[in-house]
Amino acid sequence: MICNICPRSCSAKREEKAGVCGVGEKFRVARAAPHFWEEPCLSGTRGSGTVFFSGCNLGCVYCQNQQISHGAFGKDVSSDGLKRIFDRLLESGVHNLNLVTPTHFVPMLAKTLAEYKSPVPIVYNSSGYEKAETLKMLEGLVDIYLPDIKYFDSAPALKYSGAADYFEYASKAVLEMHRQVGETVLDADGIARRGLIIRHMVLPGNISQAIKVFEWVRENLPAETYISVMRQYTPFGKAKEMPPIDRKLSSREYSLVKQKILAMGFENCNFQSGEAATESFIPNFDLEGVDL
Ligand code: SF4
Q1: pTM of the model
Q2: How far does the centroid of ligand 1 lie from the alpha carbon of residue 129, in Å?
């Protein structure tokens, strides 16, 4: 198959050679385990059942999961293998199945999800760099969309992710996600059952991006839209030599962003505490839950 499913449109023949996303025609997974550091409405008390897919179509210079996103570390698994991974996570009692960075697997994922019929919500957790038309394949199969909107302007999107057209695609993708699942619905225990949660990780020296992104969200989606404003940025890889993203976010920068966002009138905001900016939040990619 010639692959053009994501905005990179790289026309890779994935059965022969990996595309820009770094993977071929099979699912590749680096870790599958309960995760307790997602938003409280996803992690709850029993954890979110995260499945970390290998490879990535965005490739940010500061990615904290570089081993699997840039290096594509992981194990190839079949559709049946992925279903066994889901079964194992469900046995541990997780609140949901949380598919992390699945963009480059959407057509095969749609087929697997249609066959699997999960008893808990399926979470689609992505960078937001997607084609809206590709997301249509997931209609009725994903319960909760958890996209990033990383940048508003082309310059930082190009500099840090090599994707000047990032916002053009991410904005349309998020509107398509909202069309499919609507507003976030929580159960009596405060656990998300359905909806959209938009994330933005505030980058040091780039707080204007956070403000512009959330102004756009406020103008284009309802006030009750769930947003998550992340302060956990820690420099990794090339970012360690790229000021101003060679340092952590300051408390002052995060407070300023928080103030501006609160003034915009959002009804459901998740803000992170200072302890979030630590490497302990980064999972260990050792094929846990994959080597079945
Ligand atoms: S999903 Fe991968 S192979 Fe397909 S267009 Fe995007 S980068 Fe290329």
Answers
A1: 0.96
A2: 11
